[in-house]
Write a structure and sequence with these properties.
The structure is a homodimer of 144-residue chains. With 144 residues, the first copy, chain A, is α+β, with helices and mostly antiparallel strands. Chain A is 40% helix and 23% strand. Chain A binds a DNA duplex (30 and 30 nucleotides) through helix 4.
DNA sequence: TTTCATTTCTGTAACTGTTACAATAATTAT
DNA sequence: ATAATTATTGTAACAGTTACAGAAATGAAA
């Protein structure tokens, strides 16, 4: 497990071919540390709470740059807002429809039998499960 | 294959426990016939082109009703807009990043090995593949 | 049928997430 | 140091969605 600090992140950025500007380091560090599938707005508010001087537009610009550099993956779990994930390895997500929280799940997508995709070139696979998380399921039982 | 006409659709609505208003029949018929994973706006423009007198808000309201009645499934393939699908059976989607088209694919999700979801109650599974569709892949080759 | 209560639909306006754009600031190369 | 490029900011526009109040349609009861 590589340590996460400004230097390692700056290096990772340069390796990916982009300049290690302060906004990029901040945002990538946030994504690597929190791993909470945040929205752009969540990133903005969390970072500026401690370090003002970052604009909302810069968050969007930076996220676009990090996506292009394949350092960050966009998640389209909700229909109306993007979420972002610094984990690039194949994995799935569970969205609790009760509390809204998004959980990482490990899923072996090679086991999926897919047909009717002859000639399709696949570059990304997203698996999203929806339902109720254990915490909310227990709460619902208690209320009965 | 059951025939799709206003009567069978009205009956389907009533069976699902909702009134068969004209807006609901129109929109469900559109979804069943077109099967093009439309956005709310696409539904609105396509229907009002031939039959004016349907409001954009009614499209949203109706889609929410049809979702509650489990007749329509929301798709969150893009981050900024919802799409809708009248097919309820488990299947996946392929989004071509080049032309934007969304294809249905048949996927057996029972083969997925998922771990780390003890206690999670799953109500829906979405599989989204992204990449290049055969049509666009051929175009890209031609250009080289 | 007429009346009443409820449900559905409409139009406007607000709201949220995102993007475009021009101006400023910072960085890199010359 | 200077110029050219790149990054960041703030404002404003834009798109998709939702809230809300009033109008219309529907269903039930008399």
């Amino acid at each position: 497990m590589k340590e996460i600090n400004n230097n390692t992140i700056a290096e990772e950025l340069r390796e990916a071919g982009v300049r290690a500007s302060s906004a990029r380091v901040m945002i990538l560090k946030y994504l690597l540390k929190e791993r909470n599938h945040p929205t752009a707005d969540r990133i903005y508010t969390d970072i500026t709470e401690h370090l003002p001087g970052l604009s909302r537009t810069s968050v969007y610009n930076t996220l676009a740059t990090l996506q292009d550099a394949k350092l960050v993956r966009p998640l389209t779990i909700d229909g109306t807002e993007m979420r972002y994930d610094a984990t690039v390895e194949d994995h799935g997500h569970f969205k609790c429809e009760s509390c809204g929280k998004v959980y990482d799940i490990s899923a072996d997508m090679n086991g999926i039998k897919v047909s009717g995709i002859r000639g399709f070139r696949i570059s990304q696979r997203d698996l999203i499960l929806r339902g109720t998380c254990p915490h909310c399921a227990r709460k619902q039982l208690d209320m009965q």
